[in-house]
Design a protein that fits this description.
Two copies of one chain form a homodimer. By secondary structure, the first copy, chain A, is an alpha/beta fold. In chain A, 42% of the residues lie in helices and 16% in strands. At the A-B interface, helix 14, strand 10, helix 15 and strand 11 of A face helix 14, strand 10, helix 15 and strand 11 of B.
């Protein structure tokens, strides 16, 4: 049986093959591994899961209970470095899962929800963790050169891969499920419209987009709102795809995709928008991003920043930083303020779409799981595991509030053309049509 | 003619009596005063206003032009210390206006709008300013004892005074003109409803209000939303009035007004609300305010903070701090974050109601002007001038963006009962009924 399929949500079937223990040395080893497993459960807040070793030993929080229906089982194979796992579970758990030395029977998102309360292990184990885990540190810089490396690491791994599980417009940011019944496809369009309404984009407006992904928003603004858009991105693969679609959709006269860094944005615009780029900007560059907005935005202009964030300043976990998003950082509200306070922008509106991102990631994970076979053919088994862990962890992080999604709307301090209320954001909805809110 | 009436908006009638200059000493004095007037205009960005000295001399930015229709004239009497005014105009202008040594012919709000761009005077004059102006510094503390002094200074000067020009419910915070046609009375009710909708107040909820003014919101929540409210305030006069109205409205079983400091709030609540108190809390106490919210709020609760703020950290001007709101401070968004980030609250929603406060202050100023005679009888001429300056300066500050009004809605990090969208804030409005937004 394919272990990847075994990990898939709600699959409940054991693949652990009990291995008989022979000599006393093996018994001691098993005793040591069992002790580490109990430490592991303890540091995860004693969740109701079962750790299963290759010899068939089952370690549960409540040792007296047996297997129950729906129990999530974590298979810890002999080649999993249990000392490292117990000492640094936040890094090692997703890492070993990617390596295949850990497998999960049951819902991975649910498991991650159960072990949310993971506390740092005791002092000795933590010291061991620093020694045996995380052999190298990721390069965290966000210089012009490093930014290209960071972005390429995640976004240049192949448009065909992303097409397998993103919506057909290739929007790789939080969707807006205006009503809970919306599909991912619809919710991504609703998100783009929500953003455009907040920005009050009108025909003839000049729009600058910083970090445009595959260009869906830029093309949507041009085709549905009649504005001219210049969109920046340093991902070569994304820009190539965006340009191709722009030509196919006959938007070449209104949209320009520029393969360049946000720091090099020049010109002037009525509306500045950045959806899902701030995470890659680097905290030390927030004020410079504010300077760019200040430089390009017309006096009556609006700027919208859409970003993953946190309630308190804290880095992404080490595994995400190293394996998924090198150089990325989810800012807290006060950290985001470093963009606009030095330049005296007025915060008009902040909306938190955390639960919409949990739902988005859940939709992505479902589509990803459906395409696992194709992904495996494109890459390999470890890649599939890594991405499943990343998507499941994202669902969980937004579900439990470890990550937030902030949309911040800005105007210049003296701009009195700002909307009187926010009612225009909801005027289009038929009173009886939407039951989701 | 009563000089107070002369200052009233849009009155355009000179009260300056030209005094003939006699000897060369007087001429020199006049030359010196004229030079200071030109410095004054220069430091105010050379606005299109006319300074008039008691000898009839008129100083304009463009010396060649004469008086034109609608020109605002600032009468600077001989007893106005012009050196102090030129050296420290931001403090001395409202101060001398209060003293009556400066009078304004024309719209005071318009004048303040024209001199927005006041820059600090040159280095020498600024040094002089420090010597001759601001003889004493205000006590800025916000200790328990000092807070009572600060609040009493502004809010205990007589309920009869505030009844002259506030709405009949006595709401002394930014109104919400859901539609531009609303009166002040209606807009204050709309504000309370907007706040209640954001907080999702339901029958049976327990609500704690910190800084309740004359208790209008507490009574509104109890009477219209069926919740139980405990409301705190350290202003003796306000609490007395609030209790009287509570009894009259038959709400004694659902509302409790507590004459105590927010720091002493105990118990638990489903909803925590504070409208217009944060300005008096003191920056160093923001984290403690967060601790209080953290201590009292139930897991699924909501908290709303409504406060004057700024786009960048900056104190109120010295005159406002000294004469109007001792110890008060308008926080920037990042400063407000010190309330909720240490306690890991999620920011669900931030709305900026700056223009609504400009409109509110304009309505107050109009009512105040209509009641000037009664105010003069209660207090004196200087009091009338001081309050007119304060209200006009407030209109102007919100109009030009020097002050902002932030409504921040908070929830606990793991609370997944937060609303899916913000549409419920606008559902009650008939699509065709409101033309204001």
């Amino acid at each position: 049986m394919d272990p990847v399929v075994a990990e898939t949500s709600r699959v409940e079937e054991s693949v652990a093959v009990p291995v008989p223990v022979a000599g006393s040395s093996a018994r001691r080893a098993t005793g040591w591994r069992k002790w580490l497993c109990r430490r592991l459960l303890g540091s995860a807040g004693n969740p109701s899961v079962c750790l299963v070793l290759d010899d068939g030993a089952e370690i549960r929080t409540d040792a007296g209970t047996g297997r129950h229906t729906g129990e999530i089982r974590v298979l810890i194979h002999d080649d999993c470095p249990l000392l490292a796992l117990a000492a640094d579970p936040i890094y090692q758990f997703p890492h070993q899962f990617s390596c295949g030395t850990i497998e999960v029977e049951g819902d991975l998102v649910e498991l991650l929800g159960l072990i949310n309360d993971a506390r740092p292990p005791g002092r000795v184990l933590a010291m061991v963790g620093r020694l045996v885990s995380r052999p190298w540190r990721v390069q965290k810089g966000t210089s012009l050169w490093r930014a290209r490396q960071n972005i390429s690491h995640h976004y240049d791994i192949g448009n065909d891969f992303y097409r397998l599980w993103l919506d057909r417009r290739m929007v790789y940011t939080c969707a807006y499920y205006e009503s809970q019944e919306l599909t991912l496809e619809q919710a991504q369009v609703a998100k783009m419209d929500h953003v455009c309404r907040k920005l009050e984009i009108e025909p003839g407006d000049t729009v600058i987009e910083a970090g445009c992904g595959w260009g869906a928003l830029a093309r949507h603004i041009a085709s549905c709102y009649g504005a001219r858009v210049r969109a920046f991105n340093i991902s070569r693969e994304q820009i190539a795809w965006a340009r191709q679609r722009m030509v196919e959709e006959g938007l070449s006269d209104r949209v320009e995709f520029v393969e360049d860094d946000w720091r090099n944005i020049r010109g002037r615009c009525d509306k500045f928008v950045s959806v899902g780029m701030l995470e890659h900007v680097g905290r030390r560059n927030y004020s410079e991003l504010g300077s760019v907005i200040d430089r390009v935005l017309e006096p009556g202009g609006r700027a919208l920043i859409h970003s993953i964030g946190r309630n308190q300043p804290r880095h992404f976990d080490h595994w995400t930083e190293q394996r998924i998003f090198p150089g990325a950082y989810p800012p807290s509200p006060a950290e985001m303020a470093r963009i606009f306070e030095p330049h005296c922008f007025s915060v008009l509106d902040v909306e938190n779409l955390r639960l919409h991102y949990a739902r988005t990631c859940r939709d992505w994970l479902e589509r990803f799981d459906d395409s696992a076979e194709a992904v495996r053919e494109m890459f390999d088994e470890a890649f599939v595991r890594t991405w499943r862990m990343y998507l499941a962890a994202s669902v969980n992080a937004f579900q439990i509030g470890g990550l937030q999604l902030f949309q911040v709307l800005l105007a210049r301090e003296r701009d009195n053309t700002v909307p009187w209320t926010r009612r225009h954001l909801y005027d289009h909805i038929e009173k009886s049509a939407v039951s989701g809110s």
